[in-house]
Structure formats: structure tokens, C-alpha cells
Amino acid sequence: MRRGRWWRVGKSRILTTWGLGIKQRLEKERADEVWILATYPSNESATTAEQIASAKYGIPTTYWEQCQTSRRSPMEIARIYDSIDPMAMHRGALWALSDHGRRFEFPFVRNDETREKFGRRVSFRCNACNLLPEVMLVPIPAGGPKHDWEPIRHVDIQAYNGPVYSLNVEKYHHYVADGIVTHNCFYGWKEGAAHKFYGPNNVPDLWHVKKIPPQQMEHLTAKPAELAVRAMQYSSVAGENVLDLFGGSGSTLIAAEQTGRNAFLMELD
Q1: Residues contacting 44, CB < 8 A, separation 6+
Q2: Phi/psi of residue 3, each to 5°?
Q3: Helices 43-57, 86-99: crossing angle, 10 deg rounding
Q4: Reduced to 3 states, what is the DSSP secondary structure of residue 90?
Q5: Share of the chain residues as helix, strand and coil, in percent rounded to the nearest 5
Q6: Which of 10, 15, 14 is nearest to 47 (CA)?
Q7: Higher per-residue pLDDT: 68 or 129
Q8: Is residue 74 predicted with pLDDT exceeding 80?
Q9: pLDDT digits (tens, 9 = 90+) for 32-46
């Protein structure tokens, strides 16, 4: 966390009896802004990481305000920081943020944002560089208007320098814009997605097609739209999205219209 030219590295519980630990720490230390470098499964591992970060990046662990474990006066605390080169400490802080995939210009929360971000029981905008695996959740579309919440399993960080294009989706409001990546994908391609089958348990196939001589074949099946309808009814419910990467025939579009699905089609030119 940072207060003016002072930096401090420390640990905090995610949740306490009184709410979010990071919010309490920010307010108690009267900090300007705070970043979360990483999360740990135990207090012991967090304490070890705290000491390593302090030694590696040259950032004190000194409490700025008096508490039960710190009886230093404000004068003594100022004396500690007066003995440290502020520019060297700032460079160390930037190094720590970079090593953990964080950005100086995007703190997890600023002092004047605590009411907006933590004062209501709603999700708030989180910059992509501050995503925390196994702690934060993303909405996963479910059947109908509801959605499920699942934890982020992994964050892959890659260097990229180029334009980012906006995609505004009215219903779910998932988009990529202004450097912020917000979840929006077809869940069937997500790792660990569970497939649901809505058809009869004893169905042998989608459709039984009689053999037709090639010279008499006008389409892959005699009833292309009906085949698409059956496929949709067996694998989705009304209101869900269906994707056809080869939708030039229009069968998927017709079937989606008949069954109340939302169709997304592509076709190679």
C-alpha cells in the first residue's frame, strides 16, 4: 500500500468479522491506495511471503498507525522512512507490482473508492491486472435469465501491444474495452464445462437417414431444419445461445427461430 511517498508491504485476511480485511487495513493505516500482490492458503505462508517481499524489494513492513502489535510513535515511524531513499523504495514497489502482474496506475482500491466498491452488495469493475484466481468469481450464463458464479481458476499473463476492440453485449454486458477484460464467451468451450443432455435417455442418434444416391442428394439430410431443431432441443433450452461456424445454409437460423434460441452464425467466404 502507499501513503504519499511511503510504501508498506503487509498481509491481511480476505474476510474478517467486520467485513473485508483489505478495506479495514486501508482505512486503519490511512493509506492512499492498495494493491493485492497474491493470496495464500494460510497465515504462515502469507507471513513468509511478506518477509520475502520486504527483503527483496526494499519495502518496510512497518505499521503506520499504532495498533496492539506496534507501539511506535509517529516520530519513530517517520524516522524509519527518513532513513530510506524514497526513490529507491518507489522503484522497489514498481518492481514488486510488475513481478506480480500488477500495474501502478491501477490499484485494487483507492481510499476514496471504498464506499463505492465495498459499501454495496454488488460486484464492481475490476481491472484485468487485479484478478485473483480462486478468490474472485465470474458470472456463467445458465438456463433462462439467471447465471451461476464460478471461481477464476487461472490467470495467464502475456505481453501485448496493440489495439483493443470493444464488444458491447446488451443482455449480459460482458465486453472488452478501455484495457479492461470482462468475461464473455460461449461456456461450452470453457475448461471443465459440464454438458447437459435434454433428450430421451434411449435415443440412439439424432436422426436416422436413409441411404440416398449421390445424384439425388440435394442436401446432407432430407430435412436439414428438423435435424438442427432436434440437435438444439437435445443440448439446450429456450433462450440460450447456439453457435454454427458453418451457417451458410440457414438451417441453424431457421431452427433457432422455431425453438426460441439465439443463433450466432459464421461462414467461410
Answers
A1: none
A2: -135, 105
A3: 130
A4: helix
A5: 30, 15, 55
A6: 10
A7: 129
A8: yes
A9: 999 999 999 899 999
pLDDT band for position 243 (cuts 50, 70, 90): confident
Question: Average pLDDT, stretch 124-129?
Answer: 79
What whole-number distance in Å separates Cα of residue 269 and Cα of residue 267?
6
Q: Where are the domains of the chain?
A: 2-118, 131-187, 195-269
Task: Report d(CA 96, CA 34) in Å as an integer.
Answer: 13
CA atoms within 13 A on the CB side of 133: 9
Task: Cell numbers for 200, please give them.
Answer: 430421451
**Angle in degrees, CA 242, 123, 106, rounded to 5:** 105
State yes or no: pLDDT of 220 exceeds 70.
no
| Three-class DSSP labels, 178-246 | CCEECCCCCHHHCCCCCCCCCCCCCCCCCCCCCCCCHHHCCCCCCCHHHHHHHHHHHHCCCCCEEEECC
